[in-house]
């Protein structure tokens, strides 16, 4: 039997693509190498009673258009907004974060009255950039080098958006897209802690430091999402990030799609420049009219497609696509809530994210270690305790702590990570938390430590890059992943890619998967009726 | 000093809270710039009647207040704002506004000249970074004194009489002038200003003396009909007067997400305040170009609407079909017995000919659509002579 489409990988983007195709009437199979689904949007129980968000841990980017199209709430998805967070300072002070505008202003004013008011101007400017970029998320980027009618139409559309901007805004936009976050924040703020807090979103998942040009854009990538229209807000998926992929899988099955786990793809079959299906490890062959890879572009093309079936310059570009890993993760089962003496009793900060990096300089020094091929001795950590809000992930009174860590290089001084390196990395992170929460270590029941090595081995993220390729401007829009192939196609006819390596990039967003489905359906001359275009919320 | 646990009460209490809270029978509070103030103590219609019939007290402490001092304070304000601050006499106040370089309004407010080199700027929004950045090259100091000054608006035809009874002789005080009087150990500054279009004053003192002031005014004023009023009644009065409110009648330029949402002073009907010849000021070049090129995109107008259904939030149409503008404030005016509105109309419809308003009239849970012709009318809608008379009338 021949499937209309086989999707390689049950990451959230692969599942999104599969859902749209199945809804349009295609016979769809998803094959996943792991015994579980989810890719980097996954929740597993590694120690009894505790569910982790093993990779991604917070949601904001996931497009509500997709949640609605695929009826994910009916399939169990619930997004919980959260509030709070704090940067703990070295001397015992802190800067807290509040959803309430007045409370947040006063908190900033504790550190700098001027910056407290500058924050509104800054937010306005970042929101203006969001207004520009958000409509681009659910559109295939046009290829400026080709003159096909649809590319021309899209270019014109973008031109129209740009021409609506004033000269000052265009100048501001170019600055924003090219600057370092450090320089960008200097335009608005004077206080080091405030700047350290705001710089965080610009380094998450990227192998750039806060002083590297281009890091400001990464901030936008983390700001342009929303929780129910609240732009820039983040939330938890109830039950962990795996709840998103569970809901997608349920939605897929309800429209007739199939998922096979424990089914790793060995090879994409190509005959006469066209794919005919895949062979799994172990030899099973699956025939399909089209093959859609959710793996990153490097893994797909360099490991599973015969070199002879690809043009040389394409291979060269794929090989040069930057996937430098920079992040690690600790997932911790806790016997109770750790106490941070700097925070007032009952502080809401514990319901949001906690940082211990109180200046941009410290953040940059953490990056210096990465450049030298080492994990950061004084790392940046984004620490959260989702169970402060979500009652479903642990037994009552117990907690799950998620620690996202930077920086961790793909290789240690040029050689592969060892178990000893991984343990030393984990210890460094635990020690740092202990410094701000004495007694914390006594609460630890179980720890999962993940370096780029583990991320690559489990999820297949090449070099452990969490976005399936860096989000630098040179790898965005029509350059993602490779010039000429930003439309989710590949040099092999009927072989597509739908993961975060494609526009608009990484994060649990679903947009690449949805856009790929739009192209595939258009190519198959099937209706894309049940697919929402981007909604305006600003 | 901001206390560490400030977030437990995101809306702060004003210095008058110990008095306003027990009087607030409905416990109906509104948020204003991070403070809570009564929206309505018990009955907005009665409170509005107080404004137009006797005298009312309204807590204006949350208003943002910046103190600007220094040998070049007047030069600085001349550069910053639209009117000629150098010509503002000591002891006087003027209503002014300021714009960004593109000539788009950032806020309006009142500027008090407390001394030759000493000013206070009262406004709705926060502007510290802008004020500080604009001070480059000027010998001035700028500080936020919002929570160091408690303010009360005493408004209504009997307000001068209340002040006289309280021992503050303001009979010689002209509109937009101020005078200072002793109050317990400190003092109170009284300016003949307000937001109701009626006879009225604003009283300024320290948070420490706030309750003394309230009690003193109430003790002498209550027999004359002095009552506290909430924001709802004041907003009705300001609409009758035709005054603008930032973020209700226009979006301040520094907050606009859409570039076309901003407005120039000419587009807001504030062209009269621009002192074109005073020398350079921020926005001047853009405003000159707008004036000379007649490139204003909008006009702010006062409208008279048939019937009695308030047109709040309504859309205006030319020839009943083409969208031509929108209403930002409207009410059935109890004082004027007229249905009035403040609206933005596209410049080419500024004469308001063949202009219609679409109103959804709520009648027992059901909306009925009305399409009514509008008439352009003078603003302020309500401007009684008593507001200007010096000495002021007894009622
Ligand atoms: C540690 C970490 C923290 C993160 N935190 C956040 C966050 O908080 N919020 C956020 O929005 N984003 C976060 N991200 C990023 C986000 O999770 C990813 O960008 C996104 O989940 C990638 O989804 P995807 O569907 O494109 O690909 P993937 O999730 O990478 O899916 C690829 C799938 O292909 C499968 N696969 C690989 N090889 C084969 C094979 N040979 N055969 C069959 N299947 C195969 C993999 O097992 C996987 O299931 C984080 C990522 C990581 C790693």
UniProtKB/TrEMBL annotation, chain A:
<feature type="domain" description="Amine oxidase">
    <location>
        <begin position="14"/>
        <end position="521"/>
    </location>
</feature>
<dbReference type="InterPro" id="IPR002937">
    <property type="entry name" value="Amino_oxidase"/>
</dbReference>
<dbReference type="GO" id="GO:0016491">
    <property type="term" value="F:oxidoreductase activity"/>
</dbReference>
<comment type="function">
    <text>Probable oxidoreductase that may play a role as regulator of mitochondrial function.</text>
</comment>
<dbReference type="Pfam" id="PF01593">
    <property type="entry name" value="Amino_oxidase"/>
</dbReference>
<protein>
    <recommendedName>
        <fullName>Pyridine nucleotide-disulfide oxidoreductase domain-containing protein 2</fullName>
    </recommendedName>
</protein>
<comment type="subunit">
    <text>Interacts with COX5B; this interaction may contribute to localize PYROXD2 to the inner face of the inner mitochondrial membrane.</text>
</comment>
<dbReference type="InterPro" id="IPR036188">
    <property type="entry name" value="FAD/NAD-bd_sf"/>
</dbReference>
<keyword id="KW-0560">Oxidoreductase</keyword>
UniProtKB/TrEMBL annotation, chain B:
<dbReference type="Pfam" id="PF01571">
    <property type="entry name" value="GCV_T"/>
</dbReference>
<keyword id="KW-0489">Methyltransferase</keyword>
<feature type="domain" description="GCVT N-terminal">
    <location>
        <begin position="29"/>
        <end position="278"/>
    </location>
</feature>
<dbReference type="GO" id="GO:0008168">
    <property type="term" value="F:methyltransferase activity"/>
</dbReference>
<dbReference type="InterPro" id="IPR028896">
    <property type="entry name" value="GcvT/YgfZ/DmdA"/>
</dbReference>
<feature type="binding site">
    <location>
        <position position="202"/>
    </location>
    <ligand>
        <name>substrate</name>
    </ligand>
</feature>
<protein>
    <submittedName>
        <fullName>Aminomethyltransferase</fullName>
        <ecNumber>2.1.2.10</ecNumber>
    </submittedName>
</protein>
<dbReference type="InterPro" id="IPR013977">
    <property type="entry name" value="GcvT_C"/>
</dbReference>
<dbReference type="GO" id="GO:0004047">
    <property type="term" value="F:aminomethyltransferase activity"/>
</dbReference>
<feature type="domain" description="Aminomethyltransferase C-terminal">
    <location>
        <begin position="300"/>
        <end position="359"/>
    </location>
</feature>
<dbReference type="Pfam" id="PF08669">
    <property type="entry name" value="GCV_T_C"/>
</dbReference>
<dbReference type="InterPro" id="IPR029043">
    <property type="entry name" value="GcvT/YgfZ_C"/>
</dbReference>
<dbReference type="GO" id="GO:0032259">
    <property type="term" value="P:methylation"/>
</dbReference>
<keyword id="KW-0808">Transferase</keyword>
<dbReference type="InterPro" id="IPR006222">
    <property type="entry name" value="GCVT_N"/>
</dbReference>
<dbReference type="InterPro" id="IPR027266">
    <property type="entry name" value="TrmE/GcvT-like"/>
</dbReference>
